[in-house]
Amino acid sequence: MENKDCLFCRIAAGEIPSDKVYEDEQMLAFRDIDPKAPVHVLLIPKAHLSGVRDLTADNSAVVAHIFATVPQIAAKLGVTDYRVLTNNGADAGQTVQHLHFHLLGGRTLGEMG
Ligand code: AMP
Ligand code: ZN
């Protein structure tokens, strides 16, 4: 575990249970505990990054890896139309300080706020 105080590091380490839908050596995808749509999954790197603010040319390959898993995760969950988003900073709605991408689908999604 990279950060004992980080909720998603603890989920990635298996210390806190999650409803996993996909896992490999670099990342984990699990269902959001408070879903905003019928399909609401969080995709996280296992390595701790606090958010988009931490990304650099040296550590961002995991983002491409995470996005490359999206089509298969969406197919597994039965959605063809979906939204992938990330919040960076409190004013943008970030509440967990570990980089994560929301995968939302299963209903008609409104315009971005
Ligand atoms: P954000 O507000 O963009 O930082 O997203 C954090 C998301 O994490 C929210 O949608 C929460 O519902 C979700 N969340 C918080 N705790 C847990 C948990 N233990 N398991 C799954 N999802 C969680
Ligand atoms: Zn973390």
Write up this protein.
- The chain is α+β, with helices and mostly antiparallel strands.
- It is 20% helix and 22% strand.
- Strands 1-2-3-5-4 form a 5-stranded antiparallel β-sheet, covered by helices on one side.
- The structure holds adenosine monophosphate (AMP) and zinc ion.
- The site of adenosine monophosphate (AMP) has 11 residues, from loops.
- The site of zinc ion has 7 residues, from helix 1.
Write a short abstract of this structure:
This protein has 113 residues and is an alpha+beta fold. 20% of the residues lie in helices and 22% in strands. A hairpin with a 7-residue loop joins strand 2 and strand 3.
Q: Please give the share of residues in helix.
A: 10-25%
- How would a textbook summarize the main sheet? 5 strands, antiparallel
Enumerate the distinct ligands: adenosine monophosphate, zinc ion
Number of helices: 2
Overall residue-averaged pLDDT value: 96
Computed over alpha carbons, the radius of gyration is 13 Å
Strand content: 15-25%
| Through-space gap between termini | 34 Å
What is the SS-derived class? alpha+beta
How many runs of DSSP E, i.e. beta strands? Answer: 5
Oligomer: single chain
Order of helical and strand elements = HEEEHEE
Poorly predicted sequence stretches spanning 5 or more consecutive residues:
none
Strand order of the largest sheet: 1-2-3-5-4
Name the shape in a single word.
globular
